[in-house]
Design brief:
This protein has 553 residues and is α/β, with parallel strands linked by helices. The protein starts with a helix and ends in a 7-residue tail after the last helix. Helix 1 packs antiparallel against helix 7, helix 2 packs across helix 3 and helix 8 packs across helix 11. It has a five-stranded parallel beta sheet with strand order 4-3-2-8-9, with helices on one face. Strand 14 and strand 15 form a beta hairpin. The protein folds into five domains: 145 residues, FAD/NAD(P)-binding domain, CATH 3.50.50.60; 63 residues, Alpha-Beta Plaits; 157 residues, no CATH class; 86 residues, 2-Layer Sandwich (Alpha-Beta Plaits), CATH 3.30.70; 53 residues, no CATH class.
């Protein structure tokens, strides 16, 4: 592409981005941190004391010496002895650190037991800030909580931390990045464990199962978005921006660029912190950068949607700062997305790139220019799941229009299989299904299933008393079959042998007869199992009236 064309595309991109704003909540929900400036410095005593000396403006400083002195040089030791002479050092063995800015609890061994070091040292229930100079971080997390500065023995990181820490006195607000709709959550129903996807992908350890409910600690949450991306039901949704705001923004920038530039753009997702630094004016003119809190805020539903709305390619900029857990998740979602594109006959339009590739994307972009052009879809975004399938169906219509199924393990899409012969239509599966994928027949004994709603959480399989349900993970490209209501089992109701009213399923009554009919306790009253509740009571009282002493015998 000529330099003249590139300049024209860059101008068009600039105009489109200026015209299009991502809608934000003007009064976003927040959480507040309050600190008094009490600092705990953990590490070798010599380094800790030198660091404490540079934090003389803090309210209180405490040293927990957990490693040997790093340097026995006489001049070094003299500087250490002269530094922070008013700061007390403790040598107790560290048990654990937990908390966040303004609320750090540090447990140590103390007098043949355990104690909170803050209570022992400064008569406070917690420390406000922790500066960790240990060779290995005392908190083993990929994303450390606010107020916890791990620098090890890196001089540059130490200087940066020493410059920041004095500013952490007072009250600070942070957004609540995500919200939970417990009614949609498939984690646990009726004491049965189901979906745990969000628990597997939080690099800040902010998500936990408390009393069998998913809870997100907003004070620990960094807004990585991996939980909302992993959630198959939409129970966890990102709030900055909201799902609808991000969908709307992506739709507008793609459609406006196509209209004004007469070419399909490439969408480049990047994070607003580290990744944004690599986005320069040298970026090819047909690439539209989209900044997010973390790159995992956008997931397979966003990638597929922008392609369906007319983008020709999606690039995701991954930097060294991305937590390993997030990178692992990205690669898994990317593999799934490109497997779907492969199956339908589309090129692999989604790629993970690193900063070193940004200056030489020409070959990748030239290849995508030769790919078949996607006619933009007209669908509007709704729920996360339905939007994804709308995008898949449109991309399929632009390629092979296949109606096959792609079988993959550990994906939140698929169907259930029921052993019809052994199913009693007890409806335990219907009662526990969080997405209404399984439905009852209302007034008639029947079990229905809608594949598009199924998230493969396994609750129905675990809840089935007959153990006749199994899961089949797959992507079904036949839209009609995937969306329609299928009959898994139906049968005529069992009618009471006295009054003729329907009161149970045929299979349920026959199951009861098989289980207890031969037992001596039921041998004389086996016919009552074939009666409705009212008639069973009437029959019992008639029996007593005819022979009052029968019950005593």
């Amino acid at each position: 592409m000529t330099s003249h064309n590139q300049e024209a595309l860059k101008q068009t991109r600039q105009q489109v981005l200026a015209q299009t704003q991502m809608l934000q909540n003007l009064i976003p929900p927040t959480v507040s941190y309050t600190t008094e400036g009490n600092v705990l410095i953990i590490g070798p005593e010599d380094l800790a004391r030198l660091a404490a000396d540079k934090l003389s403006t803090m309210t209180q400083r405490v040293i927990l010496a957990n490693e040997a002195i790093t340097n026995q040089d006489e001049d070094h030791l003299e500087r250490v002895m002269a530094a922070a002479t008013d700061v007390e050092s403790y040598y107790n063995k560290l048990i654990g650190v937990k908390g966040f800015l303004g609320q750090f609890q540090v447990s140590v061994e103390h007098e043949n037991g355990a104690a909170e070091l803050s209570v022992v040292s400064i008569r406070k229930p917690h420390f406000d800030i922790v500066l960790d100079l240990s060779s290995t971080a005392c908190l083993n997390l990929e994303m450390l909580p606010p107020g916890y500065f791990y620098v090890g023995q890196d001089a540059a990181k130490l200087d940066d931390a020493l410059a920041q820490i004095p500013d952490f006195i007072g009250q600070f607000d942070k957004p609540r990045y995500v919200k939970i709709n417990a009614d949609l959550c498939a984690h646990d129903r009726n004491g049965i464990n189901g979906c745990n996807r969000c628990l597997n992908f939080c690099p800040a350890d902010a998500i936990s199962s408390v009393a069998k409910k998913i809870e997100i600690d907003p004070y620990l949450c960094h807004g990585a978005g991996s939980c909302s991306s992993a959630c198959p039901t939409g129970a966890i949704s990102y709030d900055l921006p909201t799902p609808q705001a991000l969908y709307s923004y992506l739709n507008k920038v793609v459609s406006r660029f196509r209209e004004q530039a007469q070419t399909a753009p490439v969408i480049l997702f990047h994070d607003n912190a580290i990744g944004a630094d690599f986005i320069t004016e040298n970026l090819a003119g047909d690439i539209i950068p989209v900044g997010l809190e973390e790159i995992t805020v956008a997931s397979i539903d966003h990638w597929m949607s922008v392609l369906a709305w007319g983008a020709r390619q999606v690039l995701i900029l991954n930097t060294d700062a991305t937590a390993p857990t997030l990178t692992q998740m990205l690669k898994g979602e990317l593999s799934l997305a490109n497997s779907i594109l492969d199956e339908m006959g589309q090129p692999q339009r989604i790629s993970l790139i690193d900063p070193s590739m940004l200056n030489d994307l020409s070959s990748m972009l030239d290849i995508s220019l030769d790919w078949p052009v996607i006619v933009p879809a007209a669908f509007a975004s709704t729920t996360k799941r339905n939007t994804l399938f709308e995008a898949i169906d449109h991309l399929n219509s632009q390629a092979g229009e296949i109606d096959t199924c792609l079988s993959l393990n550990n994906i939140p899409f698929g169907k259930v299989s029921v052993n019809v012969e052994k199913c009693t239509l007890c409806m335990s599966c219907v009662a526990i299904c969080p997405t209404v994928a399984l439905q009852d027949g209302g007034d008639k004994p029947a079990l229905y299933f809608i594949e598009q709603n199924c998230v493969q959480c396994g609750l129905c399989e675990a809840a089935c008393p007959e153990k006749v349900i199994s899961l089949i993970p797959q992507i079904n490209f036949d839209k009609t079959v995937r969306q329609q209501q299928h009959t898994l089992k139906e049968e005529a109701p069992f009618e009471c042998i006295r009054c003729g009213s329907a009161f149970a399923t045929q299979s349920m009554v026959h199951r009861m007869l098989d289980m207890v009919g031969a037992h001596s306790a039921f041998s004389a009253n086996i016919e009552r199992l074939k009666m409705c509740g009212d008639c069973r009571v009437k029959d019992m009282f008639e029996d007593i009236l005819q022979d009052p002493e029968k019950q005593l015998r």
